[in-house]
Amino acid sequence: MTMPTDEELAALGAAFDLFARRYKLAEALGPEKPLNELDKQILSYVAKNDGCGPTDIARYLGVANTTVSSATDRLVKRELLRRQRPEADRRAVALHLTPAGEGRVAALQAMYGELHRRMLAPLDAEERRQMIAMMAKVANDDA
Amino acid sequence: MTMPTDEELAALGAAFDLFARRYKLAEALGPEKPLNELDKQILSYVAKNDGCGPTDIARYLGVANTTVSSATDRLVKRELLRRQRPEADRRAVALHLTPAGEGRVAALQAMYGELHRRMLAPLDAEERRQMIAMMAKVANDDA
DNA sequence: GGAAGGTATCACGAACTTCGTACTATTCAA
DNA sequence: TTGAATAGTACGAAGTTCGTGATACCTTCC
């Protein structure tokens, strides 16, 4: 394939930087005491993979098992997450969101949705369609 | 403007999640002892804004002044950053990269560049051009 | 059945990070 | 020339990550 130029790559990097910074600043605004990065990622993962175990999460996020264990403790104490011992394998732990946890995830997703909506605002309908198609193509390539 | 659909927004969010995760996992690979997130962002900021002060950085990144001060200490101890008292205003501190710091930033940028290059790989030249144009348009809107 | 070995998780503690409070040094303004 | 404002830092409390070691459970192979 023809290589993208360095300028193109730099533009891409600058855009990602900007988005990441906006994410972070937007998150500071919510009314609740903000969750840290890991905790948010864990809640989102459990929302998408109900009943998963701590080890799945640790592998997925690239952190130590014990770190997920600590984070799970935090989230259980805050009543956002629930541990359950499945009868099938009683070493394991299946994680589920509590109703409060579901509410929190919904709020997070609403915030992200709003951020993305605003991000797309300067594009017209056709451009937006194109951009999302590219992103999907890139993401689904899954290299 | 016509609103993007929820599916479109979800696709966008999934793509960003994926990219963020790839960033994090890629960074764990380098040979050096990895810098934490804040330290990397500080180095990058100083690379683009040579001679800036801690308070500029704190405002830009949305963290406390004292946090930047601690991080600056770390980076000075690791000899990636250098403090300098400008004669013009002797309360202030001007930050500069050391040669080692410049090397570190170059390595980081090379890694990001490679990641972005690989991200663009599944697109053909025309699509890539489009995608980068969209990203630039969105980023420059600067809302 | 039972011992050996592997797996999933947690308890604990060390090292590190963030950030609020209080302080110093310097500049600005009247 | 003081008094207020500004840039930065020292210190300490609270919280986070992760390695080590312990516990409970499952599986396999005699």
Automatic annotation (TrEMBL), chains A, B:
It comes from the Bacteria. The keyword Transcription regulation applies. Keywords: DNA-binding, Transcription, Transcription regulation. Residues 5-140 form the HTH marR-type domain. Pfam families: MarR_2. SUPFAM superfamilies: Winged helix' DNA-binding domain. One of its GO terms (molecular function) is DNA binding. The keyword Acyltransferase does not apply. GO terms for biological process: response to stress. This is Transcriptional repressor MprA. The lineage of its organism: Bacteria, Pseudomonadati, Pseudomonadota, Alphaproteobacteria, Sphingomonadales.
